[in-house]
Amino acid sequence: MPVQVAGFFLAGATGWMSWRAHARMRRALDLAHHNEATWQACLQGSQDAVMVLERRNDMMGRFMGYTVVQANHQAHRLFRTDGLPLVGQLLKDVVPEGEHGNFHQRVRLAAESGQAQVDEQASPSPERSSRQRWLHHQIIPLPSGMALISRDTTEVHESMQALREQETFYRSAVDSLPMALYARSARAHNKGRYIVWNRQASDIMQMPAEQVLGRRASDVMPAEIAQRGDAQDQQVLDDPRTHFFPNLVFRTPQGERLIDLIKAPVYGVDGQLDHILSIATDVTESRRAAEQLKLASRVMEETADAVVVSDALDRIVMVNPAFLKMMGLSRAAVIGQSAELLGMTPLRESHLPGIEDALKSGRRWTGECALVGLEGRSLETWLTVTTLRGDDQRLSQHIRVLTDISVLKAQQRELAEQARRDSLTGLPNRRVFVERLRQGMARARRQPQTLAVMFIDLDGFKAINDRLGHAAGDRLLIEVATRLESSVRDTDCVCRLAGDEFTVILEGAGHPTEVHRIGQRILDRLGQPCVIGNETVWPGASIGATLFEAQDTHDSLCQRADAAMYTAKRAGKARFVLAGEEVAPHHPPSVQQACA
Q1: How many CA atoms lie within 13 A of 326 on its CB side?
Q2: Under CATH, to which class is 49-157 assigned?
Q3: CATH 3.50.50.60 fits 420-595, yes or no
Q4: pLDDT per position as a tens digit, 244-302
């Protein structure tokens, strides 16, 4: 019996212990499930990108990298724009080396030191745009890997950059103010003490900042000025708005100065009145200069030259009516716009040689440049560029003065063209003949081709000119020029040398027979009757031609053609002679009529 009882109790105890162990296991599993659910909720609910990384070794136990074993939705959004899962990917594929600064060095440091690391780097945008993306990483070592918590801080960085630029702008604006600026505290613990005192304030009051800052007006100012300043500040305290105090007299070591004073309340972040800002303008000289300024403004408004003022980034801040008229734009359409986008030449060395050195050294740059004006019309302008710099010598403004020289350039081109043209007939003159002949000879030497030159002298022109007058002679020469141009090819060059002497340059004539054919066509055209006033004349001509030879010079070629022309004259006129050929005398009726 005792043995049975003992067995009974032993079995009971064993069952009870098994039940307790099972219960503990269930509670542990429930707790694990609860913890896992909590972890997943935290993981997926986090606003940060979270990835759990596990060490990955090869079969030899050598470290290959970290593999993503868990990743929340934010991680997929931040690192996986292609929609593919992160789990199973190597860290070096998710965050490529070389694109994220020192990130991978931080990971190795965390693994080696066992301490969490923080890293923030700029990386290329996943959209491959020019915009950079900033990522902040927390790298936390785990027993079997790493936890990576990442956050996109691009907007924070851009906001900070914008704030820095805004602060720089405001600071520059305050520094460039041509008036005194100072501020006194409105807080009870240091009420009335100066906390800002700029250079203009020092110049006006002849008191350096170190003598004023941290002290009250009664400590540094004459009693009259101190009492007046305290009373003005009290007005601002009693009625916290901007107050204007004009024409105040300040007695300085240089004498009395006339001051316009503005006082305004400045509030702190707690909404309490923090400071009283004062802006004092010495109007002694400015009142005197007002008329000059008015005159200068009127000059800018009335000048025919276009004036453009742009900031350090070459954004337009001021223009005059002449510029608006030149561009065909309104003032609102150009202010704040990039000068380059408005069609103006960029202030760069590649576009305006020498401009960078000139502007850096404070010199004025002048030169010609093109400008796209009204309705896309290209304007030729004479540009003068100067720069303005602030007290810190930083570039603050560019000033362009543009003079439209399109008409002048057109006139210059017209004059240049006139210098190359016969004023009566419009044909190229002797200068052009010499140029074209030398060019043709050079081409004929480089690539062998036929080049021929004709000298043409009108027959009986002097008799016609003497009998009918110079006006009739001029009309005859104009008609001869027209007939000559219509007798040759488009590639040939007809020139008037002087008086009734003309030349024709034939390039690529091909064969002497082609030269003969063209010469005969000229004779036929010139032999036709010409009515001048009430008279009919026959403007015949004697033509001498020669073919280019490799050893020819300009003079030798012209001399042969001229000699051939005189041979034609001696042989009876109204004929064509090619140098080196036999000449048979013959007298066409047209020549006989012209000489009658």
Answers
A1: 28
A2: alpha beta
A3: no
A4: 999 888 777 777 888 889 999 999 888 889 999 998 888 887 777 777 878 878 888 88
